[in-house]
What we know:
Layout: E1 24-31, E2 43-48, E3 60-63, H1 66-97, H2 105-183, E4 186-191, E5 197-202, E6 215-221, H3 223-233, E7 239-241, H4 243-251, H5 265-273
Parallel strand pairs: 5-7
Antiparallel strand pairs: 1-2, 1-3, 4-5, 4-6
Helix pairs in contact: 1-2, 2-5
Amino acid sequence: MPAEPRPMMGREIELAPGRRVDGRVAIRFFTLDHALEFRTRPVIYRTVDPSTVTQRVVGSVVPCTPEENARWTEAAVACVAEIDSAARDLHEAHLRAAQPLPRRRARAERMRRDWDDAQRRYRSRFQAAVDRYSPVGLEISDAMRRQEELDRQRFLAERKAAELAEQRSEAIAKQRLGDLAGELRWSIRVSDSPSRTLHVVCVGVAPHAVPHDAAPLVEDVDVRTLRESIMEHRATGPVRFDESIDEHIRARFADLPGLARYTGLWRLWWDLFAEDYEPRERSRSNTATFGSSSTYSGFHC
């Protein structure tokens, strides 16, 4: 009794061409399993609506005329239909060959020959259908490769443009930071409730969290003098930069594209002094100073 041929595993394809959107269709592909062996697995393409291509459903979107769309679909349907028909004939031949062999040797030999002939016919029809479809398959795969190359070139051009825009934005941010460093004036106010705290504010910027009874300690100084004053008085209480300062600085960069638009107080202070303006936690070292990179961990944004 011959081994039962595996059933065809080709997925059904739609008889109608896929919907074109802006002169383009999406291409999906699947493989047809050979009913007798695994060595031949032709690729069949089908056209579908481009809107069906998502991150989860992979497909290529290529330009396609209505005539190409119809011809590609007809070729795929014809190939699958012929292979399915050949597979059904092979299955019927298998059913006949699977009957108990007759006692007469001549009839048994004829049944074996019929089964061998059925397999040869199937293989011949399978290969002929694949050969007829092959030019269309190559045409579609070439269209997909051309589109992939165009997409790659477009991606590289967009990435280069984004890099240039980021560089221009960064250059503008650098210039504005330099201007701000000379423009901003600073003050320190001291509050004693509930404990002594040094509040840093910008002159002309309404503070958010400075107590009304806070007394002035340092008035109207530039940023470098401010830092010196902080180092001089920081032992008397924790230093707190009012949130209004960061908001005021960020507003000056909100029109820039890319990462530069998020420039705030941390960037200004780091560019000037290569240190964080306000620590998240103090270092375990007792010998660290305000300007030491070992004093604080992390950046404050």
